[in-house]
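Contributing new records

If you add data, match the layout below exactly. Sequence lines come first and carry their own label; structure lines follow with theirs. Keep one chain per record. Anything else will be rejected by the validation script.
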Amino acid sequence: MSSTIASCVLLKGRPTLVKIETVQTRGIPRYTIHGMSAKNQQTLSHKLKTALRVLKFPTPSGAITTQISPPLEGLSTSTCQSLELALAASIVSIKNYSCIPKTTLCIGMTTLEGSIQSPPHIFALAVHAAKSGYTQLLVPESDAQDIATASRLPCLGIHSLSQLTPHTFSQIKQYVPQQQNLTSQKNPTFFHTFQNQPSALRAITLAVAGRHNLILIGPPGNGKTLATHVADELQPPVSSQEVQDVIVLNSLTRNSLETSPPRPFISPPHTSTITQMLGSKNGTIGWLQQAQHGILFLDETPHFSPAVLTHLLDPLETKKVSHPVRYNSNSITIAAYNPCPCGYSGFPEKACTCSEAEKNRYTKKITHAFKERFQLQVMVAPVSSTQLRSQKVSQESFSKLTKTIQRVRNNSAHLEQNHTAQHLLSKAHDRLCLSIRQHQAIIRVAETIAKIEESDMITADHIAEALQFRIQ
């Protein structure tokens, strides 16, 4: 007699489907699991036999052998816990005590008393099962509703192994996916600080609305970091097409059980290595991937390793990472740094104390190739005390701006340039010696400006404003 149950496990940081085949043969009564380390086999077999004995399940006679494929030899015991419900179900199924459909995948860990609990990263495992074609999940009842909503699959909520018998299995409650609340609005905690910095606020708005990369340059303590928090507040709610990506990443990195997560905001430390930034084949999820559909903030960019900044060139331009692992990096990157080591070069408010050699060493850390991967650049100038006293929070202007950004993001139409816009861009291209990459960036930013202004064409005014924010 045999049974086959499907489950899912985290293998090298990636959700992986697992097939569990159990057979009963004549011989000395024993339970053997193939496809995992001896330590994991001993731990799981003892746990499952104890739980089934406590619940007084009839033990199948003879030898019971379970084959797990693909093999999970290198996994820790905690990682293998997501298979415990499926392993128990496969044993019970030998005597026809269970009737789990083939299109149902089991995820859950058991206690010695036979109760079912959620293993780590269960949202990521459930979403992967849904994308792999399964039509139903058997999961712990305590989180069944959230798992159904996150995976968009109906879930059977089980709280004990005793429910695996035909009589009780038919009575298990099914949880159906609920509508996710993806329209929640953030409160403008930082937005009011930029009410009197129109140039910086405009650049942030363009970056968020058009998904453009942005460089912020200015003296220390004058709002570069605050500007990125304003950008985070202006991000529209995650869309229904993006929400599962964010749910999976939150589940893998923070073991989160949030079904309506906000867009990510990731600020890596300066000491980040290439592996920490981009990820690796052994399961490391890089900062860039964690920022998917959100913002990656490179604060004090010159302090990052030159090798890390070099490896970011291709992802910043193509929005894709191909090495060492493949994934989309659909995020907005904001780089912020001082104009010189002391931070006051070019600003009359305070004298610069850097030598020319120090300035050159500092500016060379940000290569021209790196800067060209950004579409916008703005100087964040100091704010006077009069401006600070006059700042007022405006919920109305914040709401209006977020609605405008959402409208622009929803508008995927390609806008053409009128004759005067083409003429101005041609003159600017020749006079400023623009590269092809810079030329295309100006067109993209001008198109975003046109959509914000609700224009059906890119005009000379839109090109002129885009030129003001060009990378220099």
